[in-house]
Design brief:
four-stranded antiparallel beta sheet; binds iron/sulfur cluster; 371 residues; 54% helix; 7% strand; 3 domains; alpha+beta
Amino acid sequence: MKVDFSRYPFLVSLNDYMVAVHKYIVDLDSLLENKSIVNLAVKRIESAIKGRIFDGRGLSTDDLVISFHIAVLLIKKVNSRWLQSRFANFEAERSYRFLQEEDQRSLMNVLRVSGVNVDKPRKELRILVGYTKGGREVYDAYDFIIAFQGYVRYTRRFWGEGKWKLVNRLVSGGFVYIRQDELARLGKEVFYVKIMGMFDEIELVPIQTLESLADKVKQLIPEKYVETSGLGGLSLTGKTGKVVVEALPPCIKRIYNAMLKGDNLSHHERFAIATFLLALGVDTEYLVNLFRNLPDFNEKITRYQIEHLAGKRGSGRKYSPYNCESMRSRGLCVAECGVKHPLTYYFSELRKLKKEKDREKTQPASSETRR
Ligand code: SF4
């Protein structure tokens, strides 16, 4: 069964596609000279930067496959982790829309080609979930099974929603039962990981045209995202004067670093860092800017959620950060720090750092006195 590569262009390499369809190996130089294809690739990138799903309606499969791969090359050349993640997120979202329209056979086929071990169960599983007003029984149909490892790998980010947690799933013979809509949602995650993997795998050859095109793409990135490939993009210290990054506990520092790199975070990771920083007195504006790094950032929603956590909206309740036990149960604890709350770790580190600084200040003076 064939996959429609215009919908899922990351499931075929540019060379394999060209050989299969046009019977020749692709010549990258001439592709980069093709203005209409390059313009399409840039449009694709621009859509992601603006937070929009690229609309390829009316375009040929050639246009869609080639422009996707040129876009990936350009982004790799630009070397912005934020742009990579942003692009992967919006392209995965685009393909997810198609995946939701697929029939069961095509859905399974697309996911298998993506490397997911998915199958139909020997016996269909239906679970009674309620009744209609007229008293008719309503069932959820679990039409697919997916290998345990794949399930864990691709759903970890959703475990904030109870239904995705393994304890709430039916697991049998190393396979997890899953509904069709859930499988498509998992597919979106698979696509995101796949596209991000492409950026790691590609080795660029030096081509002058690629360099000048990448320079143009760089101009499209809002100023604050240009340097996010390392940890130098944003710094909490200095901007708020309230948070010392060096004193952050390992769990929060890991999330913080992932944010700076533009990685996609789970619901619990977002909650953990937002409530932790709010507890330290960081203001909404600063948090919004930190969240701006995330690939699915939406300013209106983020601002609302942060203000909600800060108790400025809704019930007025301010949410407390997770303690270590809650962090552990959500898989967010990454070290044994001997404390019960990440805030305790932070304040104790802060005191140590302050003492060290005080010592440094006094030492040169005392050695001078000795002389
Ligand atoms: S022990 Fe607590 S502070 Fe340390 S990494 Fe785990 S959750 Fe964070």
